Amino acid sequence: MTGRAARRRPHHRAAPGVPQRPFGQVERRTAPLRLLSDDQVAAIHEAALTVLSDQGMRILHPPARGLFAAAGARVEAETVRLDPAMVAERLATVPAAFTLAARNPARDLRLGGGHCVYASVGGPAYVMDNDRGRRDGSFAEMCDFLRLVQALNVIHQEGGGPFEPMDLPAQTRHLDIYHAQIRHLDKSWQTQTLGRARTMDGIEMAAILFATTPEGLARRPVLLGIINTNSPLQLDIPMAEGLIALAEHGQVNVITPFTLAGAMAPVTLAGALVLQHAEALAGIVLTQIVRPGVPVMYGGFTSNVDMRSGAPAFGTPEYAKAAQASGQLARHIGVPYRSSNVTAANEVDAQAAYESQMALWGALTGGAHLLEHAAGWLHGGLTASFEKLILDAEMLQMMDAWMEPIATTPADLALEAIREAGAGGHFFGTRHTMERYGTAFHAPMLSNWDNHPQWLSRGGVDARARANAVWKDLLAAAEDPPLDPAIDEALGAYVARRKAEGGAPMN
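-> structure tokens emitted (507 positions)
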């Protein structure tokens, strides 16, 4: 295997039998899908501005209301109303793109333009695998999940704690999660934003990791946190505290309304998007009031509910359309865009695959710059699955391969190979094929391409069982990235001190 073709598409094996693409972001060369006309995008934007001006947002955090008032918003009791001119003024300071630093500079991430970041699942209450089923998560299992996130090259960022380690006290478990994220990853990781204390603990520990202070950390973003508005039209105290703390210290807020059409948002998709857009605008404006020019992202998470039961539905056609339309709204205001890989499936089954593929397609063709829950999400976000982590990693690798442009150099046009094979011949043994066969096509981590008799003769192992073997192979070969012992000691001392102080209050 020689020449340009060998360099174009390298693969390596992180563990025996587990092919992977190398770590890195694929830059999208195609324009995002335009589901809405320019007039429709403008209509949704204007409707959202009307909501903010006439009805306003309920802001439960008094200091946040004070910041809005000082910036010129109309504040009455808990309601904050924003004039369109004020919104436009604050949107003008949002950076269209930015770089998020990792402790390994080779894993720094670009957000904006044609770049997308794949972040692993974050925040579920439960964990699941083929061997033990669904259960409360433990700290040891969470560390194993983090090791897999590190081992999977297609995952760029850890998503804020794979699942809750229920064997640790609620007031202090975030400290152990942060320490584990730092120990097991040299990739970017997300902080928790539920209240100021949890957010500041993440910032303080990141500052120790980068050998600086929280104030020094403000010179470059290294942390990203998810801020969910409490739809409809409400920002609660813990989320406001987290938003302000991140923005004060130059870190990245991802403002994400949780708008489910038919429940917390209008039943029409256009109405749900109006509500999402209004809430996102309010949060984005607040970040720019706190620190003009701080990076912030527009989060789209609009889906629908099952109108027969009221249960959330994910990976639906409505979700895909909302993801594509949300990308247009984010580009309309010039703010980087976040979407998600989601499914409502209770098992790693066909439903989990087709709903996630629908969500992925909607998000990536919609121009997402951050794909949250990109790998491992199950059961509407209540469960993190080891096997789903591998299934999603396979789909992400396939999407990356799809986004690579088709090369049309003279060598790629293959005229010599066509002459060599001749009429009625074949290309298996041509020089052109022999030079490229190892890198010409996507190499699957999980898919099995045996014919049916061969597949049966090898045990008839299905994708879910193969995924179980893959994550175990990866975990057996996993090694923690080197960490300066002095930094690890300083982090341990910080964790011990904060535990002695009682950790973070329950919000």
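The CA atoms of residues 446 and 463 lie 7 Å apart.
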